[in-house]
């Protein structure tokens, strides 16, 4: 059994024409023309403290990615609908600004202090991840040229729009050029599909107080089995987002970027050359 099929069996991804949740035949959809050859599904975990918000200087402590490829992409037309995980990358990351994890962070993510104490720093993790992309034929080993069309995908905008930008500032590095500015936010795609099929929002919370459905709500809205694994474990989150993308691809959704990273985005606590200005941090001890 190849990795894609093994992961599909572990994560309860429906086989074509059969819904493992409902045990009945489901609608077959026509594939769509897919511009991208591969998707990199990412769901980072980052340092956090109780009572803080997304303005906090979060440091990435887990960098998990599921590489997905189209199994049936037609060369001339680009039409495809069978999207599967073919490889995974996972690394814990050592925080450098606040190296000691809060109790709140450990309870939320399941990441222990020992996991990050023995982990490489973020620049080292990026170097390893680049090797993963080279190994899988996405990047040229010498030039970093993209060898196929790929984009990153995440649940919501925060992983790439916020956490990556913050971490690169704290690590005093630029965002690597092989991380595209544009990425795919699954929440936007799922909302469009579910609104079309269920205008009243009965399958996913789409009311004014919950406009952005969680992974759990997206799975429910698409009629998939419940979340598999531990929520807020980065690799488990990424695998479940991959399930969502696989189902969207099966339904004929065109999977392409719909959000972007602002490399120049700044928060008030950002000083010069990676300096963190503690006086601008709400809730700083």
TrEMBL record:
UniProt KW keywords: Exonuclease, Hydrolase, Nuclease
Ranges of residues in domain Exonuclease: 38-254
Domain of life: Eukaryota
Any one Pfam family match given in the protein's UniProt record, by short name: RNase_T
UniProt-listed InterPro entries: 3-5_Exoribonuclease, ERI-1_3'hExo-like, Ribonucl_H, RNaseH-like_sf, RNaseH_sf
Annotated GO MF terms: 3'-5'-RNA exonuclease activity; nucleic acid binding
Protein name according to UniProt: Exonuclease domain-containing protein
């Amino acid at each position: 059994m190849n990795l894609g099929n093994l992961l599909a069996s572990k994560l309860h991804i429906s086989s074509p024409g059969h819904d493992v949740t409902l045990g009945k035949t489901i609608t077959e959809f026509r594939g769509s023309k897919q511009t991208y050859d591969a998707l990199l599904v990412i769901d980072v975990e980052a340092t956090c403290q109780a009572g803080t918000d997304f303005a906090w200087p979060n440091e990435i402590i887990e960098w998990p990615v599921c590489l997905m490829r189209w199994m049936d992409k037609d060369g001339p037309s680009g039409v495809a609908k069978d999207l599967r995980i073919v490889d995974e990358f996972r690394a814990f990351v050592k925080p450098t600004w606040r190296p000691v994890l809060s109790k709140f962070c450990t309870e939320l993510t399941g990441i222990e202090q020992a996991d990050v104490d023995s982990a490489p720093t973020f620049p080292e993790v990026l170097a390893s991840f680049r090797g993963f992309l080279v190994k899988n034929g996405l990047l040229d080993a010498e030039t970093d040229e993209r060898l196929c069309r790929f984009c990153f995908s995440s649940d919501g905008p925060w992983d790439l729009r916020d956490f990556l930008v913050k971490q690169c500032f704290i690590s005093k590095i630029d965002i690597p050029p092989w991380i595209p500015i544009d990425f795919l936010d699954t929440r936007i795609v799922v909302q469009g599909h579910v609104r079309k099929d269920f205008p009243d929002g009965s399958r996913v919370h789409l009311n004014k107080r919950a406009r952005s459905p969680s992974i759990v709500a997206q799975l429910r809205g698409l009629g998939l089995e419940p979340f598999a694994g531990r929520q807020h474990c980065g690799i488990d989150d990424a695998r479940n987002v991959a399930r969502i993308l696989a189902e969207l691809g099966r339904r004929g959704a065109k999977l392409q970027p719909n959000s972007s990273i602002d490399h120049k985005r700044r928060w008030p606590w950002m000083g010069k050359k990676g300096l963190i200005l503690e006086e601008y941090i709400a809730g700083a001890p």
